[in-house]
């Protein structure tokens, strides 16, 4: 079976976003017999895929600062602050 990428998102490689009527017409025309499968993504799924593809959640400059600080030995790690943050997170989850 040949899979073609229709998205820059590696999680969606080979997934097409046709409508239900397109999917039905493909199945009726014999594409199912040829081994091809069509997938219909809802608008919400397309929106989530678009959000997943954006790299806005990573601050490359900040990551590089942390890497540099680690390499030079300047980064101070406070275990009690980490523990306090984890405990606060767990408390929020248990509420």
UniProtKB/TrEMBL annotation:
Alphabetical keyword list: Bacterial flagellum biogenesis, Cell projection, Cilium, Flagellum, Repressor, Transcription, Transcription regulation
Coiled coil: none
Biased composition annotated in UniProt, kind: Low complexity: 21-34
SUPFAM superfamilies: Anti-sigma factor FlgM
Described function: Responsible for the coupling of flagellin expression to flagellar assembly by preventing expression of the flagellin genes when a component of the middle class of proteins is defective. It negatively regulates flagellar genes by inhibiting the activity of FliA by directly binding to FliA.
NCBIfam families given in the database record: FlgM_jcvi
Family that this chain belongs to: Belongs to the FlgM family.
Protein's name in the database: Negative regulator of flagellin synthesis
Protein source organism: Castellaniella ginsengisoli
